[in-house]
Amino acid sequence: MANNAMLRPPQRSGKAALVWLLIFILLGSLLLFNGIHPAKVTELDQTEFEAKLAEGAIKTAVVTSETNRVLTIEGKYTVVPPAPAGTAVPQAAGQNEAQYKTRIIYSEKLGELLARTQLKVEAGQDSWWTLIVPLLPVILILVAIYFFTSRQIKMAGRGAMDFGKSRARMIPPDELHVKFDDIAGADEAKEEIQEIVEFLRDPLKFQLVGGRIPKGCLLVGEPGTGKTLMAKAVACEAGVPFFSISGSDFVEMFVGVGASRVRDMFEQARKNTPCLIFIDEIDAVGRSRFSGWGGGHDEREQTLNAMLVEMDGLESRSGVIVLAATNRPDVLDPALLRPGRFDRQIVMDLPDIVGRRKILEVHAQKIKIDDTVDLDVIARTTPGFSGADLANLCNEAALLAARYGREAVSAADMEEARDKVCYGRERRSRRIVERERRLTAYHEAGHALVAIHSEHSTPVHKVTIIPRGQSYLGATFMMPKEDVYTHSRLEMLDEMAVSMGGRVAEELVFGDITTGAAADIDHLTRMARAMVCVYGMTDALGPVKYSDMRAHPHVRIDMPQQDMLGPETAREIDLEIRKLIARAHDRARALLTEYRAQLEKLATALLEKETMSIDEIRQLLDLEPGSENQADNSDAPGETIAPVDEHETVPTNDPA
């Protein structure tokens, strides 16, 4: 690699020298053109020519053309300057000569003059050099334009013969530098894809037992989960060439180009077997045909058809394995996913708490951290983070430490970086009137107290009234003790009560309500609708799903299709949603009324400190560790387990 880097500058200097050489040739030709520009020529008529011929002033005569006794003669003659009276002007050889040109009719008189003066008349010949030199600058300009244009076309890969060539870039395995050890938090995916690595290393091992390696493997996962990194690791571990291309590189405005590029890509791969082809964002070209989503597109369908044939057609392509990545497997064509093409799907899921801990260890090695940083705490407080999110978190923490002049990243930097990535940067410069500060303090104190005194709610991590991002005037951060993939009915009811804590606190303290609970109400309504329509958690409607499972992928699954519901059913759904919201409101009001003194104390402390951790809140309210979340929920209905999305925090005080 070092030798290549040393060779690149001379190549660039050679190209620059060639450019300067062309410029010098062009300038020289222009100067030459100006230098050989013919001198001033005097036009003589026949009488003047005969007079100068008689005087002996004509020195040379060259006949350039002759047509019907009409001669065109060019040459030189002597110009005699006027001399002062009584003096003689000496003439030196070659001085005072000028060029002339004349058209005359040949006659006997002219013949006698030529014979008497003994002037030798020569026949002229056109020189090719005299014809080329005036055109030389134009020729050089055209050559330079063609040279630079052809180079640009070839560099862009859009030559007339290369337009249908594949844009896949072959990367040798020694340039990838990615191993399985560099990928943390995806142990199951690495185990499943290990078979492909072993086949590329030793295909005979599988052929002897009659096994057939999958022809294609589809990596499915959320953005930032390491799909591209996993494909690079496979090629690097196997030690085979790696062809990388994006799905959008196949699609062009000209019909047939994408299909030609697919065929050319597989042809190049066959010449370098065994090898690996990686198609990133394959949903750009592999969308389902006749799906009605996004309209028809002949070019995309032809490209997809060519890919289907190349992956499992009549021709054998042993030794070529196709890896593809997408975060939208639901829109791919079924023919692309059948066995024989993409035989298996490997899920690159968001990492769990153990995976996040391993990923943080990998990225923490690239920055300096002090002893206050506990990666276990960071892993617990970042549910739903992908590998890319965690890498960004570590980088933001390092930038914060450098900004404040610290030599190593502290726990405060990591926590601030996490909040910045999730909710935006603190906006301490934002001017907020005292009334709104008090509203925000009581609002957030209401959320925190309801969460503290609810048995099944997510534990509170910290409370702040410092604005963040574009909308938050304050927030209550809640940290789960471990990753949770299902929520019970009691947990969802408590979470709804926590969402109403801010609105109820405003009612109790100020006797009025504000627009700050807009985000709380949206979150509360969606949760209540999911409990009724998706999870069947109400006795009145029972375990019946009232939303369309085959809805458009861009439509939320928790929104029922109203045209599929009868008017009576729709009314019952609305009534059940209102009952759940009213119950959450009553429960929050009862808790805050009981702990009104704690509400006042916590709000006053927030106005003073602006941000308080759960340890500071416990100390302020004289709570023992673990004594919170012990409220009496004996009136709550029986528990029902159902899958539900996690909600890490309760965003509050969203201005209208």
How many strands, which pairing sense, and closed or not: the largest β-sheet?
Answer: 6 strands, mixed
Number of strands: 17
CATH class of the largest domain, please?
Answer: Mainly Alpha
- In whole angstroms, the N-to-C terminal distance is 58 Å
Please tell me the CATH architecture of the largest domain by its name: Up-down Bundle
Brief sketch in words of this structure:
By secondary structure, the chain is an alpha/beta fold. The chain has helices spanning 2-35, 46-55, 108-117, 128-156, 187-201, 203-207, 227-238, 257-271, 298-311, 334-337, 353-364, 375-380, 387-403, 411-423, 434-452, 489-510, 518-533, 567-594, 596-609, 614-621, and strands at residues 41-44, 61-67, 70-78, 97-105, 121-123, 169-171, 216-221, 242-246, 275-280, 320-326, 344-348, 460-464, 474-478, 486-488, 611-613, 641-643, 649-652. The strands form 4 sheets. It has a 6-stranded mixed beta sheet. Strands 1-4-3-2-5 form a 5-stranded mixed beta sheet. Strands 15-12-13-17 form a 4-stranded antiparallel beta sheet.
Key features of this structure:
disordered N terminus; Signal recognition particle alu RNA binding heterodimer, srp9/1; disordered C terminus; 656 residues; 6-stranded mixed β-sheet; alpha/beta; Rossmann fold; Helicase, Ruva Protein, domain 3; 5-stranded mixed β-sheet; 20 helices
